[in-house]
Amino acid sequence: MRLKEKLEARRLRCLGYSFDEIHKKLGVAKSSVSxxxxxIRLTPEQKLELSQKGIQKGVIEQRRTTRLRNESAKxxxxxxxxxxxxxxxxxxxxxxxGIMLYWAEGGKTQRGLVRFSNSDPEMIKIIMAFFRxxxxxxxxxxxxxxxxxxxxxxxxxxxxxxxxSKIPLNKFFKTYRKMNSSSKNKKDNLPFGTFDVxxxxxxxxxxxxxxxxxxFESSHNFN
Length: 223
Description:
Strand order of the largest sheet: 1-4-2-3
Oligomer: single chain
Number of helices: 8
Number of domains: 2
Strand content: 5-15%
Distance between the termini: 74 Å
Shape: elongated
């Protein structure tokens, strides 16, 4: 038994501290506090003060919850209004979006290999629509590659990305399970890792490079 903490807990209880206040102040379990001070009787004045503290705490928490709810509602109104501004995309718009996505996230060093990497499933869906509908990539040209931490379920990740990309699992390269001890025992923000889409085509690589260059040169008109 930790005699020092017990004595301090009893002293604080005699002063009218609540179980919760004592456990936070001393860093001990609330159950221990309850055991140590269960025989101490508070005065009517101390009981009233604790009751008022509880009411005040509840009011503050309720106000905080209401404020957060109102702020969330206001943000959602803005998001919903902005969402409605986007109508169905034309082929040209998808073409431009795909080029810009590839410019931002695509591979640019290996000629003959078109590669797009991301952890956002919606981003993968858009780039796949760009490849299929705009670039007319044959299905046999696609390859998938999952990067994931070794302590995560890589089989589940492969099935997930196959569903998102519509690339069959037999067209996947061997999953890269990177060793990273610092990632263990932490919240996994990317339970399915990241996904690479590969297209084995020199012609497409050069074409996308040209589209990117064309947009870059055209942007000079805005200066």
